[in-house]
Amino acid sequence: MICCKELSYLTTATGTSSALMLNADILGVKKSMNESSSRPFIFINAAMSADGKIATIERKQTRISGSLDFDRVDELRATSDAIMVGIGTVLSDNPSLTVKSAARREKRCDQGLDENPVRIVVDSMARTPVDADIFKKGAGMKIIAVSGSAPKEKVKGLSKAAEIIVAGEKTIDLEKLAVELKSRGINRLMVEGGATLNWGLISAGLVDEIYTFIGNIIIGGKTAPTLVDGGGCLGEFCRLELLSCEKMEEGVLIRWKKR
Ligand SMILES: NC(=O)c1ccc[n+]([C@@H]2O[C@H](COP(=O)([O-])OP(=O)(O)OC[C@H]3O[C@@H](n4cnc5c(N)ncnc54)[C@H](OP(=O)(O)O)[C@@H]3O)[C@@H](O)[C@H]2O)c1
Questions:
Q1: Whose CA is nearest to atom 13 of ligand 1?
Q2: What is the CATH number of the domain that holds 163?
Q3: Which residue's CA is minimally distant from atom 47 of ligand 1?
Q4: Domain count of the chain?
Q5: Does 189 contact ligand 1 (Cβ within 6 A)?
Q6: 30-38: long-range contacts, CB 8 A cutoff, minimum separation 24
Q7: Diameter of the chain by CA atoms?
């Protein structure tokens, strides 16, 4: 099912910020504390193994959680304005990042929203394949965030299927990107990895909450990605407050808030 507003996104690949603004106004989800801030409320959701890995040493995602958790993640997607991933995740897993439940998609459309949240890739050098599943599957707006160093031809190719935001010279300036997204009406941003993007956002102080499902599996491997990779903290650690912890199927769902 494609709602009317979606048609306008489909006809103008670059999208319109006013339509998004409208979406944000209509969105019936809990208004975040960041509504008046210059950036969206940003939360990470990830599934990790009992040993803290989010994928295998081949950087391939493996099933860590069960159907209950999949459904929880689907609800988080459906109640977000946008979902963000890093280019590493697109190249490894080729996720579509769509809302899977037809009832949830329909509910979004009834609220005047696109059936899927805006899908965003953090991709300095415009390496997102033009035939990636985020372009092929599910209706709704896409944004590729590139740096000023991205090859012009690649950016041109992607601009046919997505809005392009340039933020940063060599890598993406995530703070600048967050402000740009907010100005487009994105108030609630869900981040679905991977390890390097999680680090980039956390180290820039841009993450408000983290959901981690810890599954009953050990993946192992020194080079397998963990929840947060990147350069690592030296002294100034990111401190968290535990909001909730519950058993779910054969694992545990933990919700953290940044202190
Ligand atoms: N279990 C889960 O919940 C879950 C969820 C998602 C992903 N994963 C796994 O995570 C792995 C992918 O993680 P990854 O670390 O390789 O890649 P990633 O975090 O998805 O993407 C990282 C890339 O984003 C780009 N980037 C640009 N600016 C950045 C900035 N300021 N900060 C951080 N990144 C920036 C960089 O590439 P450029 O310089 O080329 O732009 C960087 O290499 C895969 O194995 C996937 O299966 C697991």
A1: 194
A2: 3.40.430.10
A3: 61
A4: 1
A5: no
A6: 30/79, 31/187, 32/187, 32/188, 32/208, 33/208, 34/182, 34/187, 34/208, 35/187, 37/182, 38/179, 38/182
A7: 51
Query: Does ligand 1 lie within 6 Å of residue 171's CB atom?
Result: yes
Output the CA–CA distances (angstroms, integers) from residue 227 to 18, 124, 136, 171, in the order listed: 35, 21, 28, 20
> Which atom of ligand 1 approaches the CA of 204 most closely?
31
Q: Is 254 in the pocket of ligand 1 (CB under 6 A)?
A: no
Question: For residue 259, which of 246, 242, 245, 244 has the smallest C-alpha distance?
Answer: 242
pLDDT exceeds cutoff 60 at 3: no
What is the span of the domain harbouring residue 236? 4-258
| 79's tokens | 């109640």
- Checking if the pLDDT of 61 tops 50, the result is yes
For the chain, the average pLDDT equals 89
Ligand 1 pocket member 44 (CB < 6 A):
no
pTM for the predicted model, two decimal places: 0.90
Compute the distance from residue 192 Cα to the ligand 1 centre, in Å: 9
Query: Could you give the 3-state DSSP secondary structure of residue 64?
Result: coil
- Name the pairing type of β-strands 163-166 and 142-146: parallel
